[in-house]
Amino acid sequence: MSILSPAFYKQFIRPALFRQDPEQAHLLTHQLVAKCRPLWPMLSKSFVYTGSHLSCNLFGKSLHNPVGLAAGFDKNGDLAEFLNYLGFGFAEIGSVTAISKEGNPKPRLFRLERDGAVINRMGLNGEGADAIAAKLEHAKFGLPLGLNIAKTNDPNIVGDGAVKDILYTFDKIKSLPLTYVTINASCPNTKEGIVTEASHMRTVFTEVGKLNSGRLPILVKLSPDSSPELVAEMVEAASACGLSGFVCGNTSTGRENLSTDSAAITAIGLGGLSGKPLKNKALQLCRLVHSLKKSSQIIIGCGGIFSGQDAYQFISAGASFLQIYTGLVYEGPGLPLLINQELSAILHQNGQSLHEAIGAGQQVPA
Ligand SMILES: Cc1cc2nc3c(=O)[nH]c(=O)nc-3n(C[C@H](O)[C@H](O)[C@H](O)COP(=O)(O)O)c2cc1C
After folding, report:
1. 28-68, pLDDT tens digit by residue?
2. pLDDT of amino acid 354
3. Ligand 1 close to Cβ of residue 250 (< 6 A)
4. Residues 75, 125 contacting (CB under 8 angstroms)
5. Taking 80 as the threshold, does the pLDDT of residue 348 lie above it?
C-alpha cells in the first residue's frame, strides 16, 4: 500500500483528521499543502495521471485531465501555485466577494460520515476581492484557474447594490490570468440564499458582459434545488447574455435519503449538503442543462464525485469537465488520480474517447 494511496489515507490519515473539528482539519490540510511546498514536485509523481487520452481543452487551455478542484476549498487563492501537483487538471478558487467577511458563526462545517457527506454553512468567509486580486497578481498558477465570484454576505446589500457588489469583484479580478470566471448564483448559506429570479441574474450577466473587455469566459453556478422552470430561465438568460457555460452544481438544502440519525441532522441545522447523497440531484441538473444549453456552452459537473464511475456518469449526462470537494475529505489527495485512472479504463472498455462520451447518456450502474 503506497503511503499516498487512498487506502493508506483511509486507514491511517483520515481517522486522525476525523478526530479533529472539521474546520480545524480543513485548516490543517490547507497549511500542510502550503508547507510541503518544496516536496510537491517529488510527491506529485504519486498523484499525477500521466496517460494522454484524458487530455482536453478548457477555453483554449490544455488540461492533462478533466478533474478540477471545486470552489470553496481554496477560497482565498492560497494554493494556486501547488494544485497541479495534486493531480488536478484545473481548479476554481473562491468564492471571492467584494468585502472581506468572516462568514457565519462556528461551528459551521459538519461531517456525515455514514453518508460520505458534509453539511456546511460557511457563509462566504474570505479575504475579499482587493486582497485576493493583489495576491494573485504575482502568483504563478500551476494549472488553469477559474475564479468564482459571489455577492458579499450582507443582507443589506440588495437590488442595484447587489449588482454593483458583484461588478466590483469582477472588475478587480478581470485582468488576472484566469481561464474563466464563475458567477455563484446558488449559495444556500447566506440570508439571500439561492437566486430565485432569473431576471436578477440577467441584469448581473449583462452588466458583467459590459465590463468584460478581456472577454473572459463566464460561467454561472446553478443550484440542484432549483425548479426545472427556474433552471430553464437561468439557462435562457445565460445563453442570451453570451455566457460560456454552467457549473452543475452547488450544495443542496435537501436532507433526503440520509443514513445519519435524523436527530443528529436536526441538531446540525441549516447548511448545504455535499458529497455522495448529492450526486443524483447534481446529475439531474446536468442532464437538464445539457438538454437546454447551446452546443458551444460547456458544463462542469460537480456533486458527490468519488470515483471514475461517478465521473463517467456526469460526462454521460453532458459534463465536459468535473469538480470535486467532499470526495477529497473522504478519499484523500489520491482521489484525482484514482478518478482519472478509473475513468480512462471505463472509456477504454466502452471504446469511447472522452469527447465522444460527453452527453452520450450511457448509464453506469451506481
Ligand atoms: C466547506 C465547503 C465550502 C464551500 N464553499 C463554496 C464557495 O465558496 N463557493 C461555491 O461556489 N461553492 C462552494 N462549495 C460547494 C462546492 O464547490 C461544490 O459545489 C459542492 O460541495 C458539491 O461538490 P462535492 O459533493 O464534490 O463536495 C463549498 C462546499 C463545501 C463542502
Report:
1. 988 888 888 788 888 888 888 988 889 999 999 999 999 99
2. 97
3. yes
4. yes
5. yes
- The reply to whether ligand 1 has any atom less than 6 angstroms from the CB of 325 is yes
Residue 157: which of 168, 171, 143 has the closest Cα? 168
Does the pLDDT value for residue 183 go beyond 90? yes
Q: Give nearest CA residue, ligand 1 atom 10.
A: 71
Cβ–ligand 1 distance for 120 under 6 Å, the answer: yes
Q: How far is the CA of 70 from the centre of ligand 1 (A)?
A: 6
Mutate to test the pocket of ligand 1, among 278, 322, 325, 330 (most ligand atoms within 8 A of CB): 325
What is the length of the chain?
366
Cβ pair 316, 362 in contact under 8 A: yes
Tell me what percent of the residues of the chain surpass a pLDDT of 90: 75
pLDDT digits (tens, 9 = 90+) for 69-88: 999 999 999 988 888 888 99
Q: Is the minimum distance from the CB of 305 to ligand 1 under 6 angstroms?
A: yes
Q: Which residue's CA is the nearest one to ligand 1's atom 5? A: 72
Q: Is the CB of 281 inside a 6 Å radius of any atom of ligand 1?
A: no
DSSP secondary structure letters along 26-79: HHHHHHHHHHTGGGHHHHGGGT----STT-EEETTEEESSSEEEPTTSSTTSSS
| Ligand 1 atom 22, closest CA | 303
Model pTM above 0.70? yes
Per-residue pLDDT tens digits for 195-251: 777 888 999 999 999 999 868 999 999 999 999 999 999 999 999 999 999 999 999
Domain boundaries, the chain: 6-355
CA–CA dist 197, 216 (Å, integer): 24
Q: Identify the three-state secondary structure at position 358.
A: coil
> What's the order of all strands across the beta sheet hosting 109-112?
109-112, 117-120, 272-275
As assigned by CATH, the class of the 6-355 domain is alpha beta
Best residue among 92, 187, 251, 299 to mutate for probing ligand 1, ranked by most atoms within 8 Å of CB? 251
- Closest CA to ligand 1's atom 3: 72
Please, where are the H alpha helices in 253-293?
262-268, 279-292
